[in-house]
Predict the 3D structure of the following.
Amino acid sequence: MLTGSVIVLASFVYVGLLFAIAYYGDKRADAGRSIIANPYIYTLSLAVYCTSWTFYGSVGRAATSGIGFLPIFIGPTLMAMLWWYVMLKMIRISKANRITSIADFIASRYGKSQLLGGLVTIIAVIGIVPYISLQLKAVSNSFSIILKYPAVASADSQTTIPLLADNTFTIALLLAVFTILFGTRHLDASERHEGLVAAIAFESIVKLLAFIAVGVYVTYGLYDGFADIFSSAVEYPQLRKLLEFGGSSVDHVSWASLTFLSMLAIMFLPRQFQVAVVENVDERHLKKAVWLFPLYLLAINVFVLPIAFAGLMHFPAGNVDADSFVLTLPIAQQQSLLTLTVFIGGLSAATGMVIVETIALSTMVCNNLAMPLLLRLTVLHLHERADLSKLIVGIRRGAIVGVLMLGYGYFRLAGEAYALVSIGLISFAAVAQFAPAILGGMFWKGATRRGAICGLVAGFAVWTYTLLLPSFAKSGWLPISFVEQGMFGVSLLKPLELFGLAGFDDITHCLFWSLFANIGAYIFISLLTTQSIAEQVQAALFVDAHIEPRRPRAESLRGDASVNELIMLLGRFLGQRRARDAFAAYALKTGAKSAKELKPDADLIHFAETLLAGAIGAGSANVVVASVVQEEPLGIDKVMNILDETSQALAYSRQLEQKSRELEVATAELRSANQRLQELDRLKDDFVSTVTHELRTPLTSIRAFSEILHDNPALDLAQRAKFLGIITRESERLTRLINQVLDLAKIESGNAKWHAGEISLREVIEDALSSTSQLFSDKAIALELKIPGDLPTIVADRDRLMQVMLNLLSNAAKFCADTGGRITVRCALVADGLRVDVTDNGIGISAEDQRMIFEKFRQVGDTLTQKPQGTGLGLPICRQIIHHFGGRLWVDSAPGSGATFSFVLPRDCIAATPAPSRKFGT
Amino acid sequence: MTRPGIHGQRLIAVFLLGCLLLNYPLLYLFNVSHRIFGIPVLYVYTFSAWALLIALTAVIVSRAPD
């Protein structure tokens, strides 16, 4: 009944079913009615984590280490709780940047570095391809076991049978066809593979149900529940130690390190990245997945221990491999249907992993290794090829076949070797090397490209040395002395006890040293090196991904390109129709009527680049678009542009500071101006009150005498004449006062008219003397005139100068001694101009009075008791006039010894040609 | 599912709790030869702690807004 042909037929029917589901899923997706757009399918696709290594291997591990098989599943359970932070951010970043693989993610974060992308790809291929081999080996083993049904046997070595007769090879080929059909339907890898995900989800259901079926059968069919199994197991002394922790091969250090390792693996295994990030339909699905996925893991592990104990009790001789208990227990009970179910379950676990891992790896190989290399080979003239889309599809399909055949080849080559059997955890340790670059890149802006490269290289090198090479040595491919004595016989370099660090299991030891080197180099080099602008832009994009995606202003980075050029370019990689459709959709989205109306701005270029990134990877897309956009690799001017934006902000704030300082200064000036105005206002009030006071004095006397004359008509003529004389004099004084006030006001306000002309100072003085001669003769004053004969002519207003002389002379006459009065007028050419002195021999002026006399309405002597002899405006007016000429007027005097009023006219006033000299004397 | 807020912090707390519950030394407390309903205490504890963590996570995210 369960013959070989039935089994082979069943497996091919199963694979055919996968094709059908995937085809249906794709059809539904094309019709816009996705069957995978719900959190349950998303969770089931995440369960691709459980491979045949889980399906068969968990029981095997439990049979040797009891509960020690669990950390591999506890790690992901714990990590799922952090997904809310970490995975969500990864999904958002990847969607915004159309990231299609873990290599793309790292390359993109560090300035779209092609080198990094290639490096990650190489590490992934070396670390993961043997893992694919392990799956094929599991398929092969299960074939060989089930084909002997109903005999219970261990797996034969499958590596000796001819290639074409090997069912595993056929399965591998089928998987390649499947992956090509449903994995490369679209060129744009960032478009999800809905059919493929549907098939993977289906496989997760199959393997879970199959495992639970055998678990239930063993627990409740062979035994009477859990308690029965464990109670029976206690009877076996060799099983008792498995019931306890520590009695097995797993101690608490390796428990913790395996938990930690699997936490990293669930995030960074390429297949997990593929289903969790790339194939994610809606980030809200994560919400349910954070607890449904751990629940799945719990469910698939509940029966591991019962099956392991049942197997150990059923096959006590140890002639049956514990890894095959899941299959051999039903076989031993002749449960053909259950056996077939289990076999299909194991097949689904293996194929699911192989399909997704192959897609992920082939995308990486194509986008991050092949395309950059081909684009660089200028001999191929790829830039000029009209349609590259076929080439890319070809490369990707080739990569799929290549990865699968590599896996199959390694399986044939390694067979039962230790290097293959132990590859599960070794693979985990390899992808753990991505953790610092990815987690650091998402949360630390300062991480640099060189830091990431150094960290990855260091971690990978240590991983190779402490885990991969020893596994080769244990397989007999390298001399075992390398492990036992260390490299070159140096015991410090023992790969499993590096630098003498002993006491840990291989994985813990490798994890410690590789992450030590990785994180150390990553942080150290990052801190020593600086980021390029492209790196800074990407770093900000990644680290600030939770914030609303606002790209840094790319305008300053970009050149120009015509829309047509971009469509042509994309057409070459994606196919012309798809490129035009994509641009039309973009135009619709941005509000333009058609693709022709699009402006080739930074956003469009970014759109084109992300579109292309899906097909050929971010690094290559950047290079290719740059070839059209003529984007210079950040020349100095672009850097300056970026700096400008920053410095503009700084400049604004500096300008503000300056403005506020200027305002302060202006305020201070205004305040002082206001003070001056107030002072002037006060002075004006003083002036007005003084003037009115001065005006009132003559007015009062005029009025008083007029009233006397009016009231006393009988006054004699002499009296009358005397009073009229006083009235006349006071009126004259009043007129003079008013004239002078007007005069002063005019001069001060600058409204006075000045008639400059060439005049002789001598003539002015002589004229002034003749005008005042009556005064001198009245008081019998002796006049002395000392004027040199060669005085130059001056340019000045004659009338004004005359006014000054008359004022000084009449003042001198007024204050001259009553008897023996003597006035000297001296004129001389001095250093700073022409100087005129008028000296009298009167009572003199005290020092305080000297300052006062030039102020308005100030007269020497007590104005209340003595009759004022002048208006008090003469000297201020004189000083204003001399000031106007640019000279100065001052007085030298001491009480009792006369006074000398002097003024100097500056040399500017002296005319170019000297006036003809005239003799003059008294 | 907007920016992780208080619910994200609660999940981190459960994560830390999980790290403690399913690790040395707490795990060793249950490393005894007793059996509950015939099942070794260690197994009962491990799986129930695991289930508890899942339940806590489910309760927390079900209260988080979309």
About this structure: The CA atoms of residues 7 and 37 of chain B lie 36 Å apart. The mean pLDDT of chain B is 83.
